[in-house]
Amino acid sequence: MLQKHLKIIFLLICLLQQSISKAQITKTDTLSIQQSLSYYRVSNPLFSPNNKKLVFVVNEPASIEKGSTSHIWLYTLSDKTIRQYSNSVKSEFSPKWKPKSEELAFLSTRNGSPQVFLLDNQGGEAIQLTHAKNGVKNFIWNPSGQSILYISEDTLTAGEQKRIDDKYDEEVLSQSTKPDVLYALDISSKQVRRLPGKNWKIEDMKWDPVNESVLLVTSSLPVQEIQLSTLTVFHWKDSSYTELNSPNNPFWNGIEISPDGKKFVYEGTRVDGPTAHDIYLQNMGEGKGLNLTEKTIDLPARSIRFYNTDTLAAIIQDGFHLVLKKISMKGVATGFGITQNVFSYDLNSDKQIAFVSASANQMQELWLQVPGKTAVQISHFNHHFDSVGLVKPETIHYKSFDGTDIEANFFKPTHPVNASSLPMVVIIHGGPTGAFVDTYNAWAQLFLQKGYAVLMPNIRGSTGYGWDFLESNRYDWGGADFKDIMAGIDYVVKQRNVDNNKLAIAGWSYGGFMSEWAITQTQRFKAAISGAGLFNLISEFGTEDNAAYDYWHLGNPYEHPEVFALHSALRFIKHAKTPTLIIQGTDDEVDPKGQSQELYQALRFYKVPTELVLYPREHHGFSEFKHNLDYYTRMLDWVAKYCPVDK
């Protein structure tokens, strides 16, 4: 309890500091690498059933001493107070209010694997509801609040466990994944019932608010090379299942059922891939999904909710911006009057909207909009960034080699050594069906602190610019998309005083691929950084965890290896001269470490200055603070060594 009170006192001090006039805040502090990593992430806002309270999840940053943890916080609308609601040395997440109640269920790792806990409206000690041996992956309340349905991976049989104990621990890939099982927990009796199922993984589930059924998204086992998911209805009364018409591609998600239980929506792809883009509407019975937004919006829709039976809410990505919109059943979008970026949100029956917002020079916080009033910021977790002069970018547009309009964020350093001749780092996003959006980017801000300009282009293949733009680099990785990068460099060299002889390039995943590709195509870059990149697209296809994405973009390497070879940096590596730093997690299954090892070996063979740094236990995104601290340091030092800022 003492720790909890100390955190509340700390937050009150933070809020007091926020009340100081902004005129008194001097933004002169230098952003250190450690501070650049030490920011709070806010997510998952959720109004209580009576609209009087609001919970949300706060991810506390890791430090050298401890790992990152997440906790649930509570905001009371009547008195505008905010406090930590759940508390343990581990994490709490995925809050879900009990229907028609102020009791809150959530997942917590406080006793090991994730389990469901229940907390009453006064707080206090949470009660553990589930004791699943393999932990709980997801859970939902039934509409009456009398029971919880949860998903857990099936346990080993006694024979399987004995074999492992006897060191027969071989792994047969086609048999290694255990199926998911549905369990029903009666809240009053605490009785748990295993429900009949199939040999499948359960990826999502939503309880029909009217009918006694649950809509599931399932995929059959063993896992296929191109894995398709199925919409399945579980009928509560007789424990039977009915399959619905499902999209015939792997790139869809995010089911939500209407308040009247007659229809549902999901995020789906245009035709067959490679990422969810449009909103689909489908009846709970017969029929296929209808694309609502193909002809009316043509921008990516995320976090779809039912505002009411006949109106949706969704976050629409429009270039660098994330806009919350109402969408009619005809696909027509109108605004909510929120002018800021919206990263996650919740709405209630009083037409209040809680949302998380941020921009490139404003750290993310929780905001609240009530009808007829301007949205107000209600959290201040990242107040310690107020004294740092985070740089706001200039959004620029330039024409690529073929006249295609490309949008980019361009940052100038606050205190350049020579404003008429700026060194510059070009950062490339992952994907390629990803995009830079208007939010804090630690790489960019750290390079700016060191005196570099930064260019972050949304090249063709990026989301947020329509379907045709998204698919325009299909079968063309390293082609027109690379030319988009070089055209952007040419533009800022001419228009923004960038020094053409002081250029570096950096990226992660597809951005890493593009860094590797760049050093084989041009000598303009003095330094390069590749994080978790793709060097040999044929071997990458054969060793990655899920090849569906690459298959959509490039096809089948077993039948057309020439396509994969043509777009691999491996083919042109003999031309590379640029000093290259390679960063890689050893447990990465998205872009396996062999890709970075191949690149390192090739650069060493041609005597190009290079360094490969492997980080144990890390996957495609790094989680350990010391690893991030180390590679950020190496990244800045590498660029400073080979592309130094003039003193």
Compact description:
This protein is an alpha+beta fold.
Structure commentary:
An 8-stranded mixed sheet has the order 29-30-32-31-33-34-35-36, with helices on both faces. A 4-stranded antiparallel sheet has the order 1-2-3-4. The relative contact order is 0.08. The longest helix is centred in the C-terminal third of the chain and has 18 residues, at 625-642. The radius of gyration is 25 Å and the shape is globular. By secondary structure, the protein is of the alpha+beta class. It has a domain at 394-642: Rossmann fold (3-Layer(aba) Sandwich), CATH 3.40.50. It contains 12 helices and 36 strands.
- What is the helical fraction, as a range of percent? 10-25%
Strand order of the largest sheet: 29-30-32-31-33-34-35-36
Mean pLDDT: 92
Q: Which geometry do the CA atoms define? A: globular
Q: Structural class, from helix and strand content?
A: alpha+beta
Query: How many E strands?
Result: 36
Major sheet characteristics: 8 strands, mixed
- The number of helical segments is 12
Give the distance, in angstroms, between the N- and C-terminal Cα atoms.
53 Å
Oligomer category: single chain
Radius of gyration, Cα only, in angstroms? 25 Å
What is the second-level CATH architecture of the domain at 394-642? 3-Layer(aba) Sandwich
- Which CATH class of the domain at 394-642? Alpha Beta
What fraction of the residues are assigned to beta strands by DSSP? 25-35%
CATH 4th-level superfamily of the domain at 394-642: Alpha/Beta hydrolase fold, catalytic domain
CATH topology of the domain at 394-642: Rossmann fold
* Poorly predicted parts: 1-26
